[in-house]
Amino acid sequence: MLKTYTYPRFEYTTPPEIASGRTLKVPVVVVGAGPVGLATALDLELQGVPVLLLDEDDTVSIGSRGVCYAKRALEILDRYGVGDAVCSKGVSWNVGRTFFREQEVYNFNLVPEADHHRPGMVNLQQYYLEEYLAARAASRPGIELRWKNKVVSVMQSGKSVTLKVETGDGFYTVEADWLIAADGARSPVRRMLGLDVEGKIFMDRFLIADVVMKAEFPAERWFWFDPPFHPGQSVLLHKQTDNVFRIDFQLGWDADPEQEKKPENVLPRIKAMLGDEREFELEWVSVYTFQCRRMGSFNHGRVLFVGDAAHQVSPFGARGANSGLQDADNLGWKLKLVIDGKAPEKLLDSYSEERVFAADENLMNSTRSTDFITPKSRVSRTFRNAALSLAKNHAFGRALVNSGRLSVPSFLTASSLNTPDSETETFAGRMLPGAPLDDAPVLENGEEGWLLSRVGGQFCVMYFADDPAAIDAATIAALTGLSGGGIAVQPVVISRRAGKLPGGIVHLEDRRGVFAKRYDARPGTVYLVRPDQHVAARWRSFDADRLGAAVARATCND
């Protein structure tokens, strides 16, 4: 057990179906109560979809595992109701530093501009995130959590999925309209369906050592290439909460994982790094191998795959859990519309389309990072070291350094759900169709708040005006009666000045002009926003017909 954390034990209760012999019928089953499974269940339940969540364990993850949660993941967690808890408990940081031997050669800032609600990253041990998500899920009336319930078989027909579930008291059967597999990299559900992942396993090993110590190190990411305390290899240091520091040591492919995890082999490495005088205690140790793989498709009939069950990347870059949370964010609203009969099932093909694109982007960046960190030939090592030497004084050298390109949200600019910009309407900036929304400070009823807290969870139309009193009556009437083919669209008016608007319209004030700058918004500018806070379309003037067509396209109803 850990020195700084007490593991919760979630209560198991005997499923009533064991005694009754009846088949339990539910709309959605989520298998796996890790961060992504819990997030997916919350996403659906918050939209009114009942969820049965099954997990074969009765506690959270062993060891810190995932550590870094990026700004976009934090914004998603805000919508699930745990963002404040994660940010309050975790260690926020924006700056990363890269060292070559004894010199700093490069640093970066993840959020170089002000006026964002969340930091670039928060470091927090995965077990805390799971604990917060599990507590939130347990508080929701539409989520039934069943711990110590192991899925042992999966079969699907054209209209449903049947699961056999094993418990300590016997077996029972569940029939679901939809199954979401969030059961990890070794996904038993994937195996039961005869599906596989394809990709690359890198011939290197890394030691994770979570160390408890009191140190005045800043809340930054430090990465060393060929440091004097671990020559010829690389080392990564992250500060976590509870005075726990994550240290990753590159070991090489020939290292024996079981031997390397022994304290007598771990402690000398840490002492060489920290010095003999610093007191510390080992909290958790593991050895891992890089994998960069994904399934060919993330939807298979009525079974949908999320997180590590669908794709795996190397840990450098913090792309695993962050990408998995974006899977949940992308899938939830689409499945909700399909369940409600407001969108055809082919909308779920766009889940796979968009998240496969994001996975490939992550795999590419992760592979490049791994190749740079662990060169496999004398030539590639020479190139790597030359880039590091140049980086201290030359910008082009810094561009070549890759100690793990950190997780950023995917810009789904090629998505079939987007409505392209009109050729006659031009925009500056990066809020193009497919982009995740940038946050901005706003006022609502005179109180300070944030844009992203007021959009998301449903389709929204953001209409920009200098003065709300200057919006013509026809536009006001159209905004208050918005609906895209039976799909509700929330109107949001963002103005530079205060004013009165009819009920049903969310009114936000952009007095400092941050929104206008980030969205290149002029009076009359319109953005259509998807429930997952990605731009679906934008125009320089409001047109109800164009809006309706864009909603139809974004829901595969065109």
In short:
This protein is an alpha+beta fold.
Question: How would you describe what is shown here?
Answer:
By secondary structure, the protein is an alpha+beta fold. Among the domains are: 229 residues, 3-Layer(bba) Sandwich (FAD/NAD(P)-binding domain); 114 residues, Glutaredoxin (3-Layer(aba) Sandwich), CATH 3.40.30.120. It has 15 helices and 27 strands. The strands form five sheets. Strands 1, 2, 8, 9, 10, 11, 17 and 18 form an eight-stranded mixed beta sheet that branches. Strands 6-5-13-14-15-12-16-19 form an eight-stranded mixed beta sheet, with helices on both faces. Strands 22, 23, 24, 25, 26 and 27 form a six-stranded mixed beta sheet that branches. Helix 2 packs parallel to helix 5, helix 2 packs parallel to helix 9 and helix 9 runs antiparallel to helix 10. The radius of gyration is 25 Å and the shape is globular.
Label this structure with key terms.
eight-stranded mixed beta sheet; FAD/NAD(P)-binding domain; globular; 15 helices; alpha+beta
Describe how the helices and strands are arranged.
Blueprint: H1 16-20, E1 24-31, H2 35-46, E2 51-55, E3 68-70, H3 71-80, H4 83-89, E4 91-93, E5 95-100, E6 103-109, E7 121-123, H5 126-139, E8 143-147, E9 150-156, E10 161-167, E11 170-181, H6 188-192, E12 198-212, E13 221-225, E14 234-239, E15 244-250, H7 257-260, H8 263-274, E16 281-294, E17 299-300, E18 303-305, E19 311-312, H9 320-339, H10 347-373, H11 378-391, H12 395-400, E20 441-444, E21 447-450, E22 459-465, H13 473-480, E23 483-484, E24 487-495, E25 506-509, H14 514-518, E26 526-529, E27 535-539, H15 544-554
